[in-house]
Amino acid sequence: MTEKKIHKVFTISDYEKEEDFLQAQHRNGYELTRYTGMSCYYFKKCEPKDVVYRLDYCGAEVTDKEAYIQMFRDYGWEYLFDRFGWSYFRKEVVEGEDVEIFSDNQSRLALAEKVFKTRMLPILVLFLCIVVPQFSNSVFQFGIGLQIFWLVIFAIYVYIIIHCGLGLLRLKKKYEVGGV
Predict the structure, then answer these.
(1) Which of 101, 28, 32, 40 is nearest to 71 (CA)?
(2) pLDDT tens, 32-73?
(3) Model confidence at 157, in pLDDT bands (50, 70, 90)?
(4) Quick one: pLDDT at residue 29?
């Protein structure tokens, strides 16, 4: 069995890009076997097929995980695993069969809003309550090493907030106008 590992970073607003990446790997003969927290995807060699991957973010909302997974199985989806609140599913593309897990744009919009509320808002709170005050304090009270550290943390948070915020806004607009 040939396994390959790919390091790739996707943010909370990049879940559609992640789905496309996973589908492209499968078309090239590598199916996803696992994903670790360090943005590391593991694939095993397989027959190249057109297999669609879909992610659903449920966070801690699902109280009956077996019923949730069975609902997807009933529609032909293979459940892979959960990672950071996201459930990973895949399904072979069959002519005339639906390859979407959401039946309408309202559901897609609800997903984007749920991701914003449960993942983006905590990032903003951490940024405003911890990073900004520490950055401000380090400018006046600490040595250059700590100042540089907090400057780097500050820059990373600003990038994440802007990237994810704009990405989720783009998805929201896309779903509001009827795009898939």
Answers:
(1) 101
(2) 999 997 789 999 999 999 999 999 998 667 778 889 999 999
(3) confident
(4) 96
Domain ranges of the chain: 3-92, 105-176
Report d(CA 39, CA 18) in Å as an integer.
11
CB distance 41 to 24 below 8 Å: no
| Residue 107 backbone zone (phi > 0: left; psi -120 to 50: alpha; other: beta) | alpha
Strands 51-57 and 30-36 turn out to be unpaired
The dihedrals phi and psi of 130, each to the nearest 5 degrees, come to -120, -55
Query: What does the DSSP assignment read for 104-120?
Result: SHHHHHHHHHHHIIIII
C-alpha to C-alpha distance for 106 and 125, rounded to whole angstroms: 27
pLDDT band at 101 (very low <50, low <70, confident <90, very high): confident
pTM over 0.85: no
User: For the residues of 10-78, what is the DSSP string, one character each?
Assistant: --TT-HHHHHHHHHHHHHTTEEEEEEETTTEEEEEE-----EEEEEEE-TT--S-HHHHHHHHHHTTPE
pLDDT for 142 equals 66
Measure the CA–CA gap between 21 and 52, rounded to whole angstroms: 10
Contacts of residue 125, Cβ cutoff 8 Å, sequence gap at least 6: none
